[in-house]
Design brief:
By secondary structure, the protein is α/β, with parallel strands linked by helices. It has a domain of 187 residues: P-loop containing nucleotide triphosphate hydrolases (Rossmann fold), CATH 3.40.50.300. The chain is 35% helix and 22% strand. It contains 12 helices and 10 strands. It has a 6-stranded mixed beta sheet with strand order 6-7-8-3-9-10, with helices on both faces. Helix 6 packs across helix 8 and helix 8 runs parallel beside helix 9. The chain is globular. The two termini are 14 Å apart.
Length: 294
């Protein structure tokens, strides 16, 4: 299988041009840091993972010495076979794994230079800054309106003007306003699968988080709904740093700026998506994205 065939034509042309300019010598060791130049997109090291390991129980290590940098206001895709640690790392960014008994970690994770495991950091405040969308859409059995403002209700916000503005802003950002503006007080459970997932995105961004984590957000959707979510992801990076877990290689090439390949809890390779899919440095990466493995 030709790896370049996974890329859109415009990206293929750029890949051919950039590949010709590459240095012929390739280091023997795997580079696991995101070597990103400063750009208008924002800081290249907005999220920093430093020699991070994670255990579900003392004898079961699922992440091994992960070191990487994730740029601000770009889409970074985590790819790799099932059980390789992608979702586990994603859930560590907002410390959702803390809810599991017996877990432990080593190393550091920084968000905008703040250690997320600092004892003085309130986990609730961290989760307000980092929204999450899960694999299966999970709207609450409430109205569309109440779904969007749920987090504001919990925090004690009662001003109708603020709640109304949040609902409209969030639904517009999730490309759902025009489809729901005349039935905001209908049950969210009456929406289609794709609409439910966009509602969950609206709910996740209602608090204006800095980062949006997405764990296989399109895995249960049909192609039309998937296309809408992918288009939305591309728009969301203008205001949010997006990290997405996906098993769909074509989806990774369509929506992400950078991609990281994981295997058996280790980061094998991370690079610009175009380069990773057209000219990976590691044979393990090439075998996976070409379909010879996984």
């Amino acid at each position: 299988m030709n790896l370049t065939s996974l890329l859109p034509i415009a990206m293929q042309k750029e890949t051919i041009k950039s590949s010709a300019q590459q240095d012929e010598s390739v280091g023997a060791e795997v580079s696991v840091s995101a070597d990103v130049a400063e750009s208008p997109a924002g800081r290249p090291d907005y999220i920093k993972v430093c020699d991070f390991s994670f255990n579900y129980v003392p004898a079961v290590r699922v992440l091994h010495n992960i070191t990487m940098e994730i740029p601000e206001r770009q889409v970074t895709a985590f790819i790799g076979p099932s059980g390789c640690g992608k979702t586990t790392l994603l859930r560590n960014f907002n410390r959702m794994n803390d809810l599991i008994d017996g877990v432990s970690h080593e190393g550091k994770i920084y968000v905008n230079d703040q250690d997320i495991y600092d004892r003085n950091l309130e986990v609730i405040s961290l989760r307000k800054r980092i929204g999450m969308v899960f694999q299966k859409s999970n709207p609450f059995p409430k109205s569309i309106y109440e779904n969007v403002i749920y987090s504001l209700r919990v925090s004690g916000q009662k001003k109708k003007a603020i709640l109304d503005e949040t609902v409209e802003r969030s639904l517009k950002s999730a490309a759902l306003w025009e489809e729901t503006k005349d039935r905001l007080h209908d049950s969210a459970l009456g929406l289609s699968g794709g609409q439910m997932q966009r509602l969950c995105i609206a709910r996740a961004i209602a608090n204006r988080p800095e980062i949006l984590l997405m764990d296989e957000p399109c895995s249960a959707l049909d192609p039309i709904a998937t296309a809408k979510i992918e288009e939305l992801i591309t728009e969301l990076k203008e205001n949010f740093t997006v990290v997405i877990v996906t098993h769909n290689m074509q989806q990774a090439t369509r929506v992400s700026d950078r991609a990281a390949y994981f295997y058996l809890g280790k980061l094998v390779e991370m690079d610009d998506t175009t380069k990773l899919f057209s000219n990976p440095e590691q044979k393990e990466t090439e075998d996976y994205i070409s379909g010879r493995f996984g």
